[in-house]
Amino acid sequence: PFYIYTGITNLETGCYIGGLQFFELLTAEGATATTPAEPLTLCDAEGDNNGVTVFDLSVLDQEILGTQTNPPYSVTYHETLELAEEGLEPLPTSYTNIINPQEIYATVTNTDSGCSETVVVILNVVQLPFFDLPETFRLCVDENGNPIDEDTGEES
């Protein structure tokens, strides 16, 4: 327990009141969140090559936790900073981005103390190159696998 002596003086009248106050100071172990060194980047291998894909957010957990262990530390992901700071509406582990690139927020919480810290995580989708192939084409190679110019190759 800690004690502190407090006093109040009325400057107009000079009256004074004071006393010993008791209070208990508690400290709780905090939490730290490490911002990932690089964006979480995936190729757009699903659907329409539109910059949207499914991310496994759990692959970032260890980097964000650092040396803290789970439990008592946990990681949750959120679409907005406000949701992250309130601990509301955590994203599922398999999350489909809604824009590209997209910032989301990771919160590390010490579940014993309730202390937490939040960092930004960037999700990035690399779109596949667009190319247009003719409906039919011919590729000829020699006995070593080297391409032969179409004019000199024989059709079979």
Structure summarized in a few sentences:
With 156 residues, the chain is mainly β. It contains two helices and ten strands.
Task: Furnish the topology, listing elements before pairings.
Elements: E1 2-9, E2 16-23, E3 40-43, E4 54-56, H1 61-65, E5 73-78, H2 81-86, E6 94-96, E7 102-110, E8 116-126, E9 140-141, E10 147-148
Parallel strand pairs: 3-8
Antiparallel strand pairs: 1-2, 4-6, 5-7, 7-8, 9-10
Q: If you had to describe this structure to a student in words, what would you say it looks like?
A:
With 156 residues, this protein is mostly beta strands. Helix content is 7%, strand content 36%. It has 2 helices and 10 strands. It has helices spanning 61-65, 81-86, and strands spanning 2-9, 16-23, 40-43, 54-56, 73-78, 94-96, 102-110, 116-126, 140-141, 147-148. Strands 3-8-7-5 form a 4-stranded mixed β-sheet. A two-stranded antiparallel sheet has the order 1-2. Strand 1 (2-9) and strand 2 (16-23) form a beta hairpin. The protein is rod-shaped and about 110 Å long. The chain starts with a strand and ends in an 8-residue tail after the last strand. The model has no long low-confidence stretch (mean pLDDT 89).
Query: In which order are the strands of the major sheet placed?
Result: 3-8-7-5
Structural class: mainly beta
Q: Helical segment tally?
A: 2
The helix/strand order is: EEEEHEHEEEEE
Helix content: under 10%
Cα radius of gyration in angstroms: 30 Å
Average residue-wise pLDDT: 89
Q: Judging from the principal axes of the Cα atoms, what is the shape?
A: rod-shaped
Taking the alpha carbons of the first and last residues, their distance comes to 95 Å
Uncertain segments are none
Largest sheet: 4 strands, mixed
**Secondary structure tally: strands:** 10
Q: What share of residues are in beta strands?
A: 35-45%
